[in-house]
Amino acid sequence: MESLQVIKQRFGIIGNDVHLNRAIEKAIRVAPTDISVLVTGESGVGKESIPKIIHHLSHRKHAKYIAVNCGAIPEGTIDSELFGHEKGSFTGATAARSGYFEVADGGTIFLDEVGELPLTTQVRLLRVLENGEFIKVGSSQVQKTNVRIVAATNLKMHEAISKGKFREDLYYRLSTIEINLPPLRERREDIHLLFRKFASDFAQKYKMPTVRLTDDAVKILENYGFPGNIRQLRNIAEQISVVEENRVISTQSLMQYLPSKGTNLPSVIKGENSKSDFNSEREIMYKILFDMRNDINDLKKLTLDLMKGDNVDKLQEENKKLIQKIYKEEKDTLDFKEENSVEVVRFNDKYNDENDYEFAETIDADESLSIQDKEIELIKKSLERNNGKRKLAAKELGISERTLYRKIKQYDL
Ligand SMILES: Nc1ncnc2c1ncn2[C@@H]1O[C@H](COP(=O)(O)OP(=O)(O)OP(=O)(O)O)[C@@H](O)[C@H]1O
């Protein structure tokens, strides 16, 4: 069995906390078996490295390892993504498609944010776990797969079960072994270690001297709560590495990067003769830009649905609110059948596959970079303000939690 230190080095895991070590040791021990593992812990604690360790130390290491963000896949397509679909099983299914459970046969699937799975998908997953059987969407033929499942969640699963959002039987099936990763505030002795590692990585990346904290600043950092855990610490290290001219970071400089405790507002926003008016004005501008982009993305999605779908009336009815929001000054309804008939022909070739549909929801490569930067800034701010709580941040930003989750992953926030 490979030693703990070797594994940590191989998977880039920093820290010496006893709970962290215990979690890694558990992963090493359970790896050669086919037992299902549930990795638990708050967002940003480093759950993703555990399934990788398990896969690479198992007899499955030469087969596929697929990591799926269950929270990032739209509900309507998740069954097809996981289990595949037959040609013609739904509008837009122009060809049969293999799902992850078929592709990963012999390997490992990591189901991140498993608590986000819709109940209908949970039933399918339970069946795979019990006897390796699954059925493609639109098929009646039972298929077999041999996949090891490692799942992760940052939810309190017992709460999700009591609210009827997660099946109890599935929970017990998934969590034969549970590996819990501690939040950063419970492993204070690792904080400075991690900061130094990130500071050195960013110094290399941005070709600048490495930043260093004064002794007092170290104490401040070690006593900070880190609601966003290691992901937040990494972001702070990056911001400091890029922004601070003086490479020795004092308490005062550091404090600017730590959202203030009481209000959870970033300290840079407030202050005596601060440019708070300018800041709030700027924030409003960003918010408008952000809303506009969301409207455009919603509209793109609706347009694609219209291009692909044949039940235009139903789509129009379902999206009445959105249409009215975007075409405020227009009449109550718009005749999409007429307005888009030409486009259907033109766009059909371009968007004839569901991956394009997904792409329509993401950011275009040629979109203005500065708007993207502002979006990131706004998301970060909102997460800070809401103490890392995605539900509240999504509400504040006016987007769904699922979209916010996707953006956090996309920008590695
Ligand atoms: N022990 C560690 N050493 C070095 N980097 C780490 C460690 N733990 C986490 N990280 C880094 O922190 C970031 C967040 O980790 P990760 O994505 O695994 O968190 P998570 O618990 O899966 O979060 P979420 O529940 O939001 O998906 C990543 O950039 C990861 O590389």
Automatic annotation (TrEMBL):
One of its GO terms (biological process) is regulation of DNA-templated transcription. The lineage of its organism: Bacteria, Pseudomonadati, Bacteroidota, Flavobacteriia, Flavobacteriales. Keywords: ATP-binding, DNA-binding, Nucleotide-binding, Transcription, Transcription regulation. One of its GO terms (molecular function) is ATP binding. CDD domains: AAA (cd00009). This is Transcriptional regulator. The keyword Cell membrane does not apply. Residues 13-242 form the Sigma-54 factor interaction domain. InterPro entries: AAA+_ATPase, AAA_lid_NorR, Homeodomain-like_sf, HTH_Fis, P-loop_NTPase, Sigma_54_int, Sigma_54_int_dom_ATP-bd_1, Sigma_54_int_dom_ATP-bd_2. It holds the Pfam family AAA_lid_14.
